[in-house]
């Protein structure tokens, strides 16, 4: 279903075949970044660097709309795959969303990756007057929406009677270019979300656990916690696991000749509260920071080797970076291309 190359013969530590690496860059398109035109230029730069995909977030704040932006990118780019990371399910009816997504896949000549999540920024829902249900209800709605999208994005007729959505004989049109449908990506950090992803997704994004206020737990960035999440996905997916591509996003990239000293400085900054987006619930060692899939410190060659080790230990192979890290990460791509 996904666009990754055929798995290589070597096995990961989890006993699954290695997948070839893919690389995703994220776009933001807010005013501080230069608006919509700058957003287009960022996607074109990602394509020139050799990233495999360019994904757009979905927020109601100071940024461009993801559906319209993807439509523009279908014409402004040629090769790079286009995706959402991720659409908030509560913002859109899945039948309407399916038509927009299918149209994007047609316009892009089959380059779409569909990222959909439950929605997590409560303040955005409140500002828009959209009900922000309990986590359980949001997961129920996402489960139903993914079921509906699976049918409509195959160009098939959907009749669905769910608790939250009812669809009566709607046919998926236009039919997407990709068959049997564009790949679907979802993910998260908690067990319920990961089990739901294992049920539906072709691509699962493995992310650190966050607090109810949206802060990342420091304990969640460790290799040990990541392996726990992948094992949970493997158990929940069963026979599907070998067909699922696992993604993660590197949130910090530092190019340096001294990995250990830089890691020590990072830990000191965390101890001094200089990373307000993190909730410090554990004290990590230098080794744990350097081993974390979510932090890349070292020379380009050392970072490439670290990413190889992440894949070997976790089977994750689809590497994401944020727009501010694109330039720094670009030289790593040719070191891992076709591996």
Automatic annotation (TrEMBL):
InterPro entries: Lucif-like_OxRdtase_MSMEG_2516, Luciferase-like_dom, Luciferase-like_sf, SsuD_RutA_monooxygenase. It comes from the Bacteria. Residues 27-313 form the Luciferase-like domain. The keyword Flavoprotein applies. Signal peptide: none annotated. Keywords: Flavoprotein, FMN, Monooxygenase, Oxidoreductase. PANTHER family: ALKANESULFONATE MONOOXYGENASE, ALKANESULFONATE MONOOXYGENASE-RELATED. This is F420-dependent oxidoreductase. It comes from Nocardia vulneris.
